[in-house]
Design brief:
It is built from three helices and six strands; from the N terminus they run ααββαββββ. The longest helix has 14 residues. It is globular, with a radius of gyration of 17 Å.
Length: 164
């Protein structure tokens, strides 16, 4: 008997992929996470400036330079499906998140922690350039969704010092 695998809704899909990108601990996992999220033809705007996919990925990679771990916290989201009869295949998602990145660098014995605060709006669609695997007895396993357009407003800097 075959079983259908249920794909996450657009908001969960977005949050899971962002978390995977920030939590990737090596270049292979990072590249896989980025490629599972962004279309090769994605249009990207960061803080009002158009950037290439390569520059966007390089900037994220540089932010993760000596990362030991990361925690991503989402504090709000909105989702608008492109088709209300098939709401998980395509649509627009907006999320607000903070990512705290613990670096391997230590200052006075304590790790350096950076914080990325961002508002991210994405348009997700089935990417025709994502090759479908051969048919399998498990139905519904293929997920060809990718971000086709990304608009981010963000700031990156030292995490605020917490007073005890």
């Amino acid at each position: 008997m075959s079983t259908n695998i249920v794909l996450p809704n657009l908001t969960n899909w977005t949050e899971q992929h962002l978390t995977s990108i920030f939590n990737a601990t090596n270049q292979t996992n990072f590249t896989s996470a980025v490629n599972a999220f962004l279309s090769d033809k994605v249009a990207i705007t960061v803080n009002g400036v158009s950037v290439s996919r390569a520059d966007f990925v390089n900037n994220i990679s540089a932010e993760k330079f000596d990362e030991q771990s990361a925690t991503v916290t989402f504090s709000g989201a909105v989702e608008v499906p492109a088709d209300s009869n098939n709401p998980i295949t395509a649509g627009s998602v907006g999320v607000f998140y903070k990512a705290s990145i613990v670096e391997g660098i230590r200052v006075l014995g304590a790790p350096v922690i950076r914080q990325v605060t961002a508002s991210l709006n994405v348009v997700i669609a089935q990417d025709p350039d994502v090759p479908q695997p051969k048919p399998s007895p498990i139905h519904g396993f293929f997920d060809g969704r990718r971000v086709m357009s990304l608009n981010q407003v963000s700031i990156d800097g030292p995490a605020p010092i917490q007073n005890a």
